[in-house]
Amino acid sequence: MLKLKRAFAIGIMSLVPFAAYAAPAFKAPFACGQTWSYSTYSGHNYNALDWVRWDNGPTSGAAVLASAGGTVSVSSVGWNGGAGNMVVINHGNGWSTHYFHLNSINVNVGASIGQGHQIGTVGSTGQSTGAHLHFEQRLNNSAQSIVINGKSLAPYPYSYGQKALTSDNGCSGTTPPPPPTGNKYWVDTWGDANGRSSPGGTVTGTLYKGTHYTYCKVWGPKIQNATGTQWNHWWLKTDLDVGPTNQWVSAFMLSRWGNDEAKDNNGTVIPNCP
Fold first, then answer.
1. Distance of CA 263 to the CA centre of its chain
2. Which pLDDT score, from 0 to 100, does residue 177 have?
3. Rounded Cα distance, 155 and 153, in Å
4. Looking at the predicted structure, is the pLDDT value of residue 128 above 70?
5. What whole-number distance in Å separates Cα of residue 67 and Cα of residue 96?
6. pLDDT per position as a tens digit, 149-169
7. What is the pLDDT of residue 21?
8. DSSP 71-84
């Protein structure tokens, strides 16, 4: 149904129809290159999909990414009416995405996040019989046909394995644009990292596991694993998820590169800080 708005011109009031706001450019809520199978079931909200990993990777504990950029409106741990640990992202103009049954949550209410930002991990909390992600796209809180990369996934199968989708969320060229000033380099981190006031200095906050931007790098104190087989001397200047801006995180946390490497997701060497 078309909505109506009032238009006034030369003292005459008329009713002018306008189309509903266009949806954001939604992507699959999983990491680049991963393949997931989806289904619904009788009694389920038809426009809600359950997802499980379908490329021999683990479902439980897999990263859940924001399908589109927005503001976190719900970040709740608990039963939540059967939804379990849940996150809701408000994308504006009435659109929101809903992520249920999470194992862990990485974002807080009020956080402004980009498409591809990790919001949590897949679990089986709430009314769930096995690890999966329950995912919805809503307009004015009404569930809509699930659309990924501009294409509707309906009609939905009623069992896993009949239909699957490979994610391009976070792939090269599809990450969200960097903040508006300065040169930024996108990197993926494999775990939550301590942010520090200086390389190896006082802990000032946290950079959550996921995709982030960094400004530049400096050589500093060595960070290594317990066995000494992995290490990194480089420290990256970045803005924390929790804590102040312009802080330092060890390049040891980069998920794509090895010892004493500090490159962005495209393989570009991050420049030295001035």
1. 21
2. 41
3. 6
4. yes
5. 10
6. 999 999 999 999 999 999 998
7. 58
8. EEEEEE-S-GGGT-
**Token pair of 26 as six digits:** 């939604």
Other Cβ atoms less than 10 A from the Cβ of 93: the count is 12
How confident is the model over 134-145, as pLDDT tens digits? 999 999 999 999
* Residue carrying the six token digits 């990369």: 149
The amino acid present at 212, given as its one-letter code, is H
Closest CA to 96 of 152, 135, 132, 150: 135
Closest by CA to 249, choosing from 174, 176, 185, is: 185
Sequence-distant (≥ 6) Cβ neighbours of residue 221 within 8 angstroms:
199, 200, 233, 235
Asked if residue 187 has pLDDT above 80, the reply is yes
Q: Are strands 147-148 and 151-152 parallel, antiparallel or unpaired?
A: antiparallel
Which two three-digit tokens encode residue 251? 């390049």
Tokens of 228: 């000494």
**Peptide bond between residue 155 and the one before it cis (omega within 30 degrees of 0):** yes
71/122 Cα distance (integer angstroms): 20
**Architecture field, domain 35-166:** Distorted Sandwich (2.70)
Q: What is the pTM of this model?
A: 0.59
> Which tokens hold the place of 123?
């679990």
DSSP letter assigned to residue 239: -
The answer to whether 184 touches 215, Cβ cutoff 8 Å, is yes
Alpha helices (runs of H) in 12-76, residue ranges in sequence order: none
Q: In whole angstroms, what is the distance from residue 245 CA to residue 110 CA?
A: 17
Q: Is the peptide bond before 176 cis (omega within 30 degrees of 0)?
A: no
Classify residue 132 by its DSSP letter.
B
Tokens 């290594």 sit on residue: 224
